[in-house]
Write a structure and sequence with these properties.
Elements: E1 2-4, E2 19-24, E3 35-36, E4 41-43, E5 52-54, E6 56-60, E7 69-70, E8 74-76, E9 82-85, H1 90-100, E10 105-116, E11 123-126, E12 152-154, E13 179-186, E14 202-205, E15 209-219, E16 222-226, E17 232-233
Antiparallel strand pairs: 1-4, 2-3, 2-6, 5-8, 6-7, 9-14, 10-13, 10-15, 11-12, 11-14, 15-16, 15-17
The structure holds calcium ion (3 copies).
């Protein structure tokens, strides 16, 4: 950030060499040491370490009569803390079901649930069908109404990049205890032009969580088999 000494008309006053201190409303921020302006200006390096919206304030410590300057809100996104891939491609499951019941056939009903264990979590969902993002923190193939296979971000309060399943509008931060239920009938053999919630998809979360994968094999009118489910803890 840049601190300028200014007059009442917001014009730079380039004769000021007062010392400036930097503080932030983000209490874990990494702040620079106090330093003097040079010709009325100076750049300071500030690291905001916590997700949320914060301000940064510059104060003239040489001249207490000067009004401190406070920034507008700066929003910090939480980074992905954990990622995993939904297990067991449906084609393999169908093969396993077929050995149990020769009538098992496509489609396979895939059921995944993700349980949020920490409030404020944001989940990123990257479909395998169109390739994986190089950086889950900065997805380039974002979901939209015209790009339904794009990477979805759930819990960031922004409907335009995907709405968490089960919500009318994307909440800002998923609350602990939220269960994200993903269920769809996956048609086999898989072709990458069809987008499903299925094995191989990549999920990122800003906090630890549990997941429960499961699949149901089907053939007309009858359940051919059910895959056992076991919760698996993946969080730190
Ligand atoms: Ca993808
Ligand atoms: Ca969203
Ligand atoms: Ca998929």
């Amino acid at each position: 950030m840049t601190v300028n000494a200014v007059d009442a008309g917001w014009n730079l006053v380039n004769t000021v060499t007062d010392k400036v201190s930097i503080v932030s409303s983000e209490l874990n921020a990494t702040l620079p040491a106090n330093a003097a302006l040079v010709a009325g200006t100076r750049s300071f390096s500030v690291m905001l370490n916590m997700a949320g919206s914060w301000t940064v304030t510059a104060t003239d410590v040489t001249d207490g009569g000067k009004t401190p300057g406070t920034s507008s809100l700066v929003t910090v996104k939480a980074p992905v803390a954990e990622e995993f891939f939904l297990p067991m491609p449906e084609q393999q499951i169908l093969t396993a079901f077929t050995t149990i019941n020769s009538g098992a056939t496509t489609p396979i009903t895939a059921v995944f649930s993700i349980v949020v264990t920490m409030s404020g979590t944001v989940v990123t969902y990257d479909q395998w069908e169109n390739g994986y993002e190089a950086d889950l923190n900065n997805p380039t193939n974002l979901w939209s109404g015209a790009n339904l296979g794009g990477t979805q971000i759930w819990g960031d309060g922004d409907d335009s990049n995907g709405i968490c399943p089960g919500f009318a509008h994307d909440p800002t931060g998923l609350v602990a205890g939220t269960v994200i239920a993903l269920r769809n009938d996956v048609v086999l053999p898989r072709v990458s032009s069809s987008i499903f919630y299925d094995g191989g998809d990549r999920v990122g979360a800003t906090a630890g969580h549990h997941r429960v994968p499961g699949r149901l094999g089907r053939h007309p009118g009858t359940r051919a088999g059910q895959r056992g489910c076991r919760p698996q803890h993946l969080g730190p």
